[in-house]
Write a structure and sequence with these properties.
Mean pLDDT: 89
CATH architecture of the largest domain: 3-Layer(bba) Sandwich
Helix content: 25-40%
CATH superfamily of the largest domain: FAD/NAD(P)-binding domain
Number of helices: 19
Shape: globular
Length: 504
């Protein structure tokens, strides 16, 4: 299991001579790589194509309130408490006092979800969900708790998966899974104010044998469903961007923004980068390079010196887009509707709507994460112009929340379509639907170095799409560089040994 480098190598200080390393990308993977390599005694510089650090951690702060004003997480917004590497760095960087609860989908009884008869409150949805779920089963002779389990699992998958992906997975929650669950006492897992929901995360934690018998296509997706609906997810109170900014402040080497790498040439004894800065393009010869940018960006570059297997994984790795749209509202009107946090499954183009806590000055308003979509659903919104996109979300969400239509309620709008952003061309690697062996083979291929060029990023990890994966891969890359010996050095050492032995 990956661990922070001080837990692996002992005292700080490079093994052998200190190395000079250039890190491409100032997202969380690039910053952790630089941080750990410096702690080991190496010299590091970081170059970033955009004008910002943090990568796909992006906290948008609405004008008018300064640092204490309302903000929206347009990138990563939550951390499962079980992600020990992420929690380790939060503690090491002195951010423990920023950790607080993240309330997730269906965690508030007053939140909404759609049904064939219109929007229902979470607290009132169980009967309709069970009836609609049972209607699709060939055999309905299951215990009531089993049907409740199946109905909430189906609702969770429907809320998190893109519509097309859900349609393909819907039949996976069938007789085999329900037959197994039907023999288990589900009473301890009933939750909610009226005990009309099932705590799926607790159930699967207590019954790993059920998890292991899930269809292979459902396995990895179920992991994310359980993470996203867990009651032990946290956030950083002052914004997720405090994590990369605190990391950057601890790095001694230079972090240069506005330097876009447009070509990489891997040679036996160096890696040559072609860099565009404004209207000027220049080359830089590097001893070692760690590339942490998404493969969607990398494959648009001129790449030479890569072997064919590496080029194949760079071009074949699949990324899903994500689109987030946040409304700066005059007031937290949802609180008058009885909603204190969490999220609704809205359906339509909007998909998910989150109600961040209004921690600041009420006079500065509150933020509604009006729409969070992934996959093809995000593409559908991303293809619209910003004006069209905002209008679609406002129109659909006003059906559930008519307060949005009141004059002056929406003070501002901010959004990000990650699938159309040139620094990412996607939100995250998603390996849903793949069996474990294939996922691991792709991870190894993505992380495999090319001579002095190393790779990190969530796409190189066992936890794609999470901050944890980016950190895991960064630690792995730093560890590989620490122990890497260039081919020329190995040849020289072998020759020296041969002479000492008196052999040819």
């Amino acid at each position: 299991m990956t661990a922070p480098l001080q837990e692996i190598d002992g005292p700080d200080g490079a093994i052998g001579r200190p190395k000079k390393v250039t890190v491409i990308g100032a997202g969380i993977a690039g910053l952790v790589t630089a941080y750990e390599l410096e702690r080991l005694g190496h010299h590091v510089q970081v170059i970033e194509g955009s004008r910002d650090i943090g990568g796909r951690i992006h906290t948008h702060r609405f004008p008018g309130g300064g640092a204490a004003g309302p903000f929206a997480e347009l990138g990563a917004m939550r951390i499962p408490a079980g992600h020990r590497l992420t929690m380790h760095y939060i503690a090491e960087l002195g951010l423990q006092n920023q950790v607080c609860e993240f309330r997730t989908l269906f965690s508030d009884d007053a939140a909404y979800l759609p049904s064939s008869s219109g929007y229902l409150r979470v607290r009132d949805a169980h009967e309709t969900l069970v009836d609609e779920f049972a209607a699709g089963l060939p055999n309905r002779h299951y215990r009531d708790n089993t049907l409740l389990f199946g109905a909430w699992l189906d609702a969770s998958i429907r809320a998190i998966a893109p519509r097309q992906f859900y349609a393909e997975l819907h039949d996976e929650i069938g007789a085999e899974l329900l037959n197994l669950v039907d023999h288990i006492d589900l009473a301890p897992y009933r939750c909610g104010s009226a005990g009309n929901r099932i705590d799926l995360h607790a159930f699967f934690a207590d019954h790993p044998q059920v998890r292991s018998l899930c269809p292979p296509r459902l396995e990895r997706f179920l992991d994310d469903v359980l993470d996203e609906t867990s009651s032990t997810i946290v956030r950083l109170r002052n914004g997720m961007d405090t994590l990369p900014r605190r990391l950057a402040s601890r790095i001694r080497g230079k972090i240069s923004t506005g330097q876009e790498v447009v070509g990489i040439d891997v040679r036996d004894d160096e890696v040559v980068l072609r860099i565009r800065q404004g209207v000027r393009t220049f080359t830089r010869s590097c001893d070692y390079v760690v590339c942490t940018i998404p493969f969607t960006v990398l494959r648009r570059m001129q790449l030479t010196g890569f072997d064919q297997d590496k080029l194949d994984i760079v071009h074949q790795t699949k990324y899903w887009p994500a689109t987030k749209i946040a409304f700066h509202c005059r007031e937290a009107f949802w609180e008058k509707d009885g909603i204190s946090g969490g999220a609704s499954f809205t359906g339509g183009h909007v998909r998910q709507t989150y109600y961040p806590p209004a921690d600041g000055d009420p006079a500065l308003g509150a933020v509604l994460l009006a729409s969070y979509t992934i996959g093809p659903d995000a593409d559908a919104l991303g293809r619209l112009s910003e004006t069209e996109r905002n209008a679609v979300v406002s129109r659909e969400l006003s059906v559930m929340h008519p307060e949005l239509s009141r004059p002056g309620m929406v003070l501002g709008v901010a959004g990000r379509a990650w699938g159309a952003r040139r620094w990412s061309w996607g939100a995250a690697t998603v390996r849903w639907g793949q069996e474990a062996a294939l996922r691991e083979a792709e991870r190894r291929a993505a992380a495999r170095p090319q001579k002095g060029l190393f790779f990190a990023g969530e796409h190189c990890s066992s936890k794609p799409a999470w901050i944890e994966g980016a950190i895991e891969s960064a630690i792995d890359a730093a560890h590989e560089i620490e122990w890497y010996e260039p081919r020329a050095s190995r040849v020289f050492a072998a020759a020296r040994t041969s002479r000492a032995d008196g052999s040819a």
